[in-house]
Amino acid sequence: MKRTSIHCFFLILFTFSVSILNAQSAVLASGTNASGSNGSVSYSVGQTAYLYKGANSQVLEGVQQAYEITTLSASETVSKQEGILLYPNPVRDYLYIDFTSSPFKGSEYQLFDAQGKLIKKDRISQSKSELDLSSLPSSVYIIRINQNGENLKTFKVIKK
């Protein structure tokens, strides 16, 4: 009798916990399986919708967002300076800044990570300068070239 009541208790507990769960379903626009010599993958394109059964037997639908979208900059700046080259991009170890047709005196660079945190800052001493990025992890970086406190040009750099 004691064993039966314990089983009934767990059965009721399980039934109660299942009844309060929210059901998820996928409203898909497309999807398929893709395979190649290195393996296979299944994918779908669309939005995930959820159903919630609330008080008074109401059924509500909504869309779940799986990630947050963050904007780094709201406006695009137009560069006045066309005589500055930055190469190679994407870069592995060394990045070159080349002042081809503009003076480099009084220039400096600032290197920011994708979150906007200042990583490196230094003066540019030659018209063709070399930056060592070998110690940085693979990511997207932003380099801003300043001259006498004024922003000349900003580059997006991909580090492999």
From TrEMBL:
Leader sequence segment: 1-23
Pfam families, sorted: Por_Secre_tail
Record key words, sorted: Signal
Secretion system C-terminal sorting domain boundaries: 86-153
Protein's recorded name: Por secretion system C-terminal sorting domain-containing protein
Lineage, opening ranks: Bacteria, Pseudomonadati, Bacteroidota, Flavobacteriia, Flavobacteriales
